[in-house]
């Protein structure tokens, strides 16, 4: 095992000649190589199998060390933001750490959005960025940017590496930090000096992480206290969030529901953690959730938050949220507990581990004291399900209802399909109307809400499917025409890397979710939300006669320009046939342009009632009137 060298994380520029410092620290037992070669070797020794990125001057030594003998697959993207999102999609689909490598300056700043996105959604990711040489730091050198400083608020941890000998240890630590505790992104900023210096490489590395000991197992009497609350509850609800997905705790959540009789409601990232066919699953709660899920939470006397953080899109007005409920909050991050809602029983630990210990404790309590009769509670819940099923309006102008498109995609899809979405109305329709069969089958930008996330995340998911599931898990991307255009250049990556992603664009010619808010809160003032699709200038017409379409862009031709299959759909019959064909094509990407009704609303946000322009809703407003606790 290699001995550790002095910690370089957050270090200032070394004092004195660089040559003398590196020579003094050099270890002479091991294989001699450059820092750039050590980057590649360390990733291989860590078991990294897939890497996403885009080269540039300050990271060229690392790219020079990537060759045909490199053990990991490298996927070249067309924009650094896409490298980050692809690493995210890969991480969610596989449960592994996503890795991307980009250059300094604009390359590094381009990936900041993906880093912030991964931080909000607790996605394990290592981002390796190039940096100018040590002696050039602080001189405003060409393509210099303080990426450690820039990303400090949105990373789990950061490193600035100024010495080659630190590279294996730092990457080992970054990989460990990213995937343990509450997962998140770690930035490793590599100076060009460190990449070109020589070191003596050995493996494994001894990590220096004093004080980093994430709590995974519950301590004290909290489990017995939680079991007692379950024993006293006649209206419990399991409120399951993305943390349960990161912990791979689907089986544990299902078991807890079976033992206690409690219904399951999920946040957006947790869709599919328990199959939708399970009668205990009420769907998504919150602003765009089902009435049954939100209504159950409003009436519950015990709310069990499992890897969830009481996000504002779930709670709306905090004082009005589950007002009569006692709270058990399970989370691996102690900072989340009590942040938004005070917990009666706080439990810090890994969700799967905690539930493995909690469920037997509840069974012991029930054996002594009996199990509460929840029949009356389920009568209330089933009444809500019957009265307020998820529904939508058909288009009055003959265009497709986007919700119908999503339902048809779900109906025809393989049960093992991995679903990915961009951000906007289509994201909510996908979350509402897809029939999720398995955990890790839903990938979407939740906390940050990043438009443009969909296509690169789908590419990462497809790489993960190819790697871990032999491509037997198809990947469908549901995107909007606005969100898709932010990263549509990644069609080139999909084509050249033979990634048969299937893309459904719900094309309504507007920024749909923003326009919906304008409808609700800004008196139909549609400022800067019309994409002018179909309103091209005379002379820009595409096609002739009955086939005349004025599209900017023409998504079908765009797909074909990138070597992909493109189809355009106007009717239900055309849609059914196009989806069938897409499911049969497995040698290249397929894009279907679905023409959908632009005035379609995401339900039941309107019904649930929104109180102001911040879209802070009160769950008790009609049609939920009369079902509050």
TrEMBL record:
<dbReference type="Pfam" id="PF02776">
    <property type="entry name" value="TPP_enzyme_N"/>
</dbReference>
<dbReference type="InterPro" id="IPR029061">
    <property type="entry name" value="THDP-binding"/>
</dbReference>
<feature type="domain" description="Thiamine pyrophosphate enzyme N-terminal TPP-binding">
    <location>
        <begin position="33"/>
        <end position="148"/>
    </location>
</feature>
<comment type="pathway">
    <text>Amino-acid biosynthesis; L-isoleucine biosynthesis; L-isoleucine from 2-oxobutanoate: step 1/4.</text>
</comment>
<dbReference type="Pfam" id="PF00205">
    <property type="entry name" value="TPP_enzyme_M"/>
</dbReference>
<dbReference type="InterPro" id="IPR045229">
    <property type="entry name" value="TPP_enz"/>
</dbReference>
<dbReference type="InterPro" id="IPR012846">
    <property type="entry name" value="Acetolactate_synth_lsu"/>
</dbReference>
<keyword id="KW-0028">Amino-acid biosynthesis</keyword>
<dbReference type="InterPro" id="IPR011766">
    <property type="entry name" value="TPP_enzyme_TPP-bd"/>
</dbReference>
<feature type="domain" description="Thiamine pyrophosphate enzyme TPP-binding">
    <location>
        <begin position="422"/>
        <end position="594"/>
    </location>
</feature>
<keyword id="KW-0100">Branched-chain amino acid biosynthesis</keyword>
<dbReference type="InterPro" id="IPR039368">
    <property type="entry name" value="AHAS_TPP"/>
</dbReference>
<comment type="similarity">
    <text>Belongs to the TPP enzyme family.</text>
</comment>
<comment type="pathway">
    <text>Amino-acid biosynthesis; L-valine biosynthesis; L-valine from pyruvate: step 1/4.</text>
</comment>
<keyword id="KW-0808">Transferase</keyword>
<dbReference type="Pfam" id="PF02775">
    <property type="entry name" value="TPP_enzyme_C"/>
</dbReference>
<protein>
    <recommendedName>
        <fullName>Acetolactate synthase</fullName>
        <ecNumber>2.2.1.6</ecNumber>
    </recommendedName>
</protein>
<feature type="domain" description="Thiamine pyrophosphate enzyme central">
    <location>
        <begin position="224"/>
        <end position="358"/>
    </location>
</feature>
<dbReference type="InterPro" id="IPR012001">
    <property type="entry name" value="Thiamin_PyroP_enz_TPP-bd_dom"/>
</dbReference>
<dbReference type="InterPro" id="IPR012000">
    <property type="entry name" value="Thiamin_PyroP_enz_cen_dom"/>
</dbReference>
<keyword id="KW-0479">Metal-binding</keyword>
<keyword id="KW-0786">Thiamine pyrophosphate</keyword>
<dbReference type="InterPro" id="IPR029035">
    <property type="entry name" value="DHS-like_NAD/FAD-binding_dom"/>
</dbReference>
<keyword id="KW-0460">Magnesium</keyword>
